[in-house]
Amino acid sequence: MSLQICILETDILRPELVDQYQGYGKMFERLFAGQAIAAEFHVFNVMQGDYPSADARFDAYLVTGSKADSFATDPWIETLKAYLLERYQAGDKLLGICFGHQLLALLLGGKAERASAGWGVGIHHYQLTEQPDWMTPKLDELTLLISHQDQVTRLPENATLLATSPFCAHAAYRIGDQVLCFQGHPEFVPEYSRALLDIRQQHIGEPTYRAAVQTLDQAHHGRTVGEWMLRFVANGKAAQLA
Asked: Among residues 99, 88, 110, which one has the least CA distance to residue 179?
């Protein structure tokens, strides 16, 4: 049987990007399509108040990226935090990307805030500090597309660092075999990153924009991180290989 993944969408794409990319839920579905481990996906836009029914059960809950700040106090963010804390206390597996990475760190005792280093955009390179068995295939260095101006500045006490760089010290972490989070965006493709860069060019600043655009022809490990995420969820479960 396939893994059942609940995707908690925490944003709505800009109107000019919807036709091509639909939403972050669809982008993750495309990332996971054809992976070695079969999975089915159920997308709920929590920004709009959409949540699974109380009796729904999933193998993992994935919190997407968002233009919102993880440390903001919008009612929908507070509702999401309460929901995720319930899931964590129930022992459910949680996955976080960008906003989700930061929100879960905050929720579980860490800290996230506006980064003193400024915007991180384009392709970024990370040193891997640990590679458990589920992080297969193995990598010498991790590269991911990124788009963020906030960062996790302190991990939860029980978290294990997985990836780091001089620009982003806490780029990926896990908490036991229950929580797995990445600051980068495995679901992004270079064309989407370029579209975001063009939209945010004035806000990001011309030098940062130009430098980021020049990185977009580099290879990135989005598909590999997608496989890691599914293997992390399947670890200890009787999931069938596709």
From this structure: 88
